[in-house]
Amino acid sequence: MEHNDDAYLDQALIGGLEPGPISVVDYDERWALRFHRTAERVRQALGGNAVDVEHIGSTSVPGLAAKPIVDILVTVDDVTDEAAYLSALESIGFVLRVREPKHRMLRTPEQDVHLHVYEPTDAEVKNLLDLRDWLRIDEADRELYATTKRQLATQRWSDMNHYAEAKTEVVLAILGRARAWRAGTPPRRKPL
Predict the structure, then answer these.
(1) Which end of the chain is more exposed for a tag (fewer CB within 10 A), N or C?
(2) d(Cα 98, Cα 30) in Å, to the nearest integer?
(3) How buried is 72 (Cβ within 10 angstroms: 0-12 exposed, 13-18 middle, 19+ buried)?
(4) In whole angstroms, what is the distance from residue 23 CA to residue 68 CA?
(5) Distance CA 112, CA 148 (A)
(6) Within 13 Å of residue 61, how many CA atoms lie on the same side as its CB?
(7) 73 φ, ψ to 5°?
(8) Along the 192 residues of the chain, how does pLDDT read in single tens digits?
(9) Angle between helix 168-182 and helix 123-137 axes, rounded to 10 deg
(10) Distance between CA 152 and CA 86 in Å, rounded?
């Protein structure tokens, strides 16, 4: 999300803030299977309206501790053209949770899968994929990220978005190394 203050969240979230504990657990190989099954259902429902469907977030990184929620990136030609994808995703059980100018997020009623809908050229798509790909190969940043998430999960949050915002400094540092790696430059590590 671009803004995580409560006033912004009141506008972007469908259903309001959801306080509750954050659970970070050890990596589970079943997450990849959940992604593949869900991705196939999404592709079938959307047909040609899905430009791409990718497994993102911590559950997409083998060995990384995560909230047990599979995050999926779905790219569409025009995120504001909800008629092209929203009812199709709702027909397979997803519920709209977030409506932002450049992003929609839908989730299962069980809240075990989140679909993040963006346009392919949105900068956030590159960020999500670069972060995922880097964490898949860099053990030090994978451990840094897991430790950060576990520490933050011990706190009480008025909404999961506040927990996500608290990770920003670490995520940006890791993303900087991911971008350097992607550009072919050796990543430099600075203490946080």
Answers:
(1) C
(2) 26
(3) buried
(4) 8
(5) 21
(6) 25
(7) -95, 125
(8) 345 566 666 676 766 666 677 899 999 999 999 999 999 999 999 999 999 999 999 999 999 999 999 999 999 999 999 999 999 999 999 999 999 999 999 999 999 999 999 999 999 999 999 999 999 999 999 999 999 999 999 988 876 777 888 999 999 999 999 999 999 887 777 665
(9) 80
(10) 33
Q: Which of 58, 88, 62 is nearest to 72 (CA)?
A: 58
What distance in Å separates the CA atoms of residue 152 and residue 134, rounded to the nearest whole number? 22
Rounded to two decimals, the pTM is 0.89
Contact 174, 189 (CB under 8 A): no
Neighbours of 123 (CB within 10 A): 9
Compute CA distances 39 → 1, 79, 117, 191, whole Å.
23, 18, 13, 37
Q: Which of 22, 112, 26 is nearest to 62 (CA)?
A: 26
